[in-house]
Amino acid sequence: DVQLQAFGGGLVQPGGSLRLSCAASGFIFSRYTMNWVRQAPGKDVEWVSKIRSDSSIIEYADAVKGRFTISRDNAMNTLYLQMSGLKSEDTAVYYCVRGVDYKLGPRGQGTLVTVSS
Fold first, then answer.
1. Which member of 50, 55, 58, 69 has the greatest number of CB atoms within 10 A?
2. What is the rounded distance in angstroms from the CA atom of residue 114 to the CA atom of residue 93?
């Protein structure tokens, strides 16, 4: 079974940083494009970032460009999201999603990021 477990969330002050990780198992991680998405309370899922299987193509939503950095370690089957310059509007549950289309791929357990003073 495909398993995706995000962790590393927590409470952080505005302007602070966090690094999220997503541990993947049950499939050949190195063959898949991966995404980070987030869902704030009462809002729809929002795509955050995408990274190709070989890290050759990386994309970001305008809302996080310049503040977030996506990366992956295919040897460790792990996806990362380095977040800095955090804002209150970044508060959400963050999920990793497998595949080119984040709306269709499997999505594991998320991790809550709360940005507040």
1. 50
2. 9
- Tokens at residue 98, please? 């497998």
Amino acid (one-letter) located at 71: S
Q: What is the pLDDT of residue 62?
A: 98
Find out whether 18 and 10 touch, Cβ atoms under 8 Å. Answer: yes
**CB-CB neighbours of 10 under 10 Å:** 12
pLDDT tens figures, 1-27: 999 999 999 999 999 999 999 999 999
Strand partners, 7: 21
Which of left, alpha, beta for 66 (phi over 0: left; psi -120 to 50: alpha)?
left
Determine the Cα–Cα distance for residues 13 and 85; give it in Å rounded to an integer.
Answer: 10
Cβ atoms within 10 Å, residue 78: 16
Report the distance separating Cα 38 and Cα 63, nearest Å: 12
> How many Cα atoms sit within 13 Å of 90 on the Cβ side?
31
